[in-house]
Structure formats: structure tokens, C-alpha cells
Amino acid sequence: MSDDVIVADGLRKEFVVRVRAGRLRREKRRVTAVDGIDLRVPRGEMLGYIGPNGAGKSTTLKMLTGVLTPSAGEVRVCGLRPVAQRTRLALRVGVVFGQRSQLWWDLPLRESFALLRHVYRVPAAAHAARLRRCRSLLDLDSFLDTPVRQLSLGQRMRGELTAALLHGPEVLFLDEPTIGLDVVSKQAVRGFLGELGRAGDTTLVLTTHDLADIERLCRRLVVVDHGRVVHDGSIAALHERYGSRRVLVADLEAPLPEPPVLAGAPLHRVEADGRRLAFALESASVAEVVSALAALGTLRDVSIVEPDIEDVVARLYRGS
Ligand SMILES: Nc1ncnc2c1ncn2[C@@H]1O[C@H](COP(=O)(O)OP(=O)(O)OP(=O)(O)O)[C@@H](O)[C@H]1O
């Protein structure tokens, strides 16, 4: 039996919207939000699901969690049909959607957690152990007794993550978990998710516009645009596909009389009045470039810049 916890075949979602067509007339128009997505996610994988605004990410997550009925296609999560078996599915997945909260607005966080234990019928010992772990990893203690409505966005998000995990879900769906968070909360959330990933028993599907989240957490990246998958693979594979190169930046004591031509490392940028040269590392190695430069002038410093994921993803969005 396959151990894919998420299986989607030909998943589609169309919305019918009414748009103005003249002063009084309104016309029906079909919007295809998800246009035939195939996806298989093995147990324990951390998957980044990204795409530009309106690409269909949230709609996909809503179909995977049983909030929306697909217009066509097949979907199974933990072997269940999300819409038809939504209650059973809720016991096996955790969901954090930026705009919606699982917490009780007027209650202290601690009491929301206690209520959730009853909602999900979690044995007391298991609940206590999970809560203890979240309290320490997400640093909850200083605001555990604060009513949710008084929490900062970052504190609330840490509370939401805990709420989504207290029943021990196999799959966690996160829609923009770090959006709008300050640096400290962002680090806390990323650190926590990284820890979850290393433990290896929770499958994670993460949508985000912050590519640093993906770089830190996800080995696999699915990029969607106009409701279709335009890339499915590692970040390294994406760089490979778009020919991203590492760049060697060399600081020289004095500018060279003319721009050097190095085999396998085209000159990429010239800065600081010619004292700083950047070369794209195509087929040449770092050692080859350094020794070629050392023969031409006096080197003060050399650094290597890794390819930028923002850059390559922007190219991918433009291309698709
Ligand atoms: N309930 C709805 N009714 C009509 N159209 C909708 C509805 N929900 C989404 N859409 C449309 O479907 C498309 C995909 O929307 P979706 O929210 O899934 O995109 P997204 O990738 O999550 O975008 P973002 O990054 O902006 O959150 C958009 O064109 C959107 O306007």
C-alpha cells in the first residue's frame, strides 16, 4: 500500500461569479481557480505550496481539508474523502488558515486549549504532553492566561499552531503561517515547524509568500500558477531548470587594466570603481577563478553568493 497521505488527481475548482456588464446588467462568469492538479504527498514530507496571488493555493487547501467541494477530480487525505468524511478527517489533520481562528476570542489561551481537548476527545496525558512541548518550543508561557483578543498577531499565531496540534494530527495544513509576524515570532514559528519536520511523523503542507520559510523548511516545492502545477521538485531542481548560478565576488587591491575574461565564469558585475568583480560560476570551479584572478592582480577578499530563490521564483512566475 502506498504511504501517500495526500492524493489528488485532476483536482479542479470552478467558481461562478457575477460581474457587471453595463450599467444594470450582470453576467455570470466562470473562474477556474484550480485547473487539474495532481499531487501525491508521502507521509512525513514537508511540502511548500507556492504561487502568485490568485494562483489557487487557498482553494486547493480548502479542497484538501473538506471546506470546498471539488468541481472535478479525486482527492483523498489520510485515505478519507475530505468533504464526505470531514468529521473523521478533522481528527487526523490540523489546519491553520490565516484569517480564521480556532481559538475562543474572549477566553484566555489556556482555556481554549482545554476546550479543544474536549472537542477532540484527547486523553488527558497526551494533551498535557503535547501542550508542554508547544509551550516550551513556542514560548507560550508569558501569554497563556491572556484573552485571545488581547494577543499580538505573533502570539496568536503561536496559539493557533498549538491549537492545531493538540489532537496529534498526521497532516498539518498551514496557509501563510508567518505573514505579518515580527522577526522573533517568525523565528519561533519556523524553528517549531523545523522541529516538527525533523521528528518526521507529521506531514506538512505550507503555503507562503515568504520564500525564506520554504528555504528553511521544505525539501519539496510545488509551484502553482493559474490553477496549474508549473514546478514540482526541489529548490535545487528549480535553480537547475532556470540556470541559476552561484556567484563569486572578488575584491581586488586595485582595478585591473581591463575586464578579465575567464573560461567558464563570465563577468557578472563590476562595482567599487572596478575593485569589486562578480563572476557567475558556470563550469569553472572557485579554485580556478581564484587562481586566475590572483595571476592578474592582488586579491583582498573572495566570497560566494548562493543563487537567490526570490529571483528564480520571480522568473518562474513571469515565464508561466
Ligand atoms: N469563493 C470564491 N468565489 C469566486 N472566486 C473565488 C473564490 N475563491 C477564490 N476565487 C478566485 O479563485 C482564484 C484563486 O484564488 P485563491 O484564493 O485560491 O488564490 P491564492 O493562490 O490562495 O491567492 P493569494 O496568494 O492571493 O492568497 C482567484 O482568481 C480568486 O479570485
Automatic annotation (TrEMBL):
Record carries keyword ATP-binding: yes
Spans through the membrane: none
Database matches in Pfam families: ABC_tran (PF00005)
SMART domains found in the cross-reference section: AAA (SM00382)
Keyword annotations of the record: Antibiotic resistance, ATP-binding, Nucleotide-binding, Transport
Subcellular location, record wording: Cell membrane
ABC transporter domain mapped to chain residues: 19-251
Membrane topology per record: Peripheral membrane protein
One GO cellular component term: plasma membrane
UniProt keyword annotation of Transport present: yes
Swiss-Prot/TrEMBL GO biological process terms: response to antibiotic
Entry's Gene Ontology molecular function annotations: ATP binding; ATP hydrolysis activity
Broad class of the protein's primary localization: membrane
PROSITE patterns to which the protein is assigned, alphabetical: ABC_TRANSPORTER_2 (PS50893)
The protein, known as: ABC-2 type transport system ATP-binding protein
Species for this entry: Micromonospora citrea
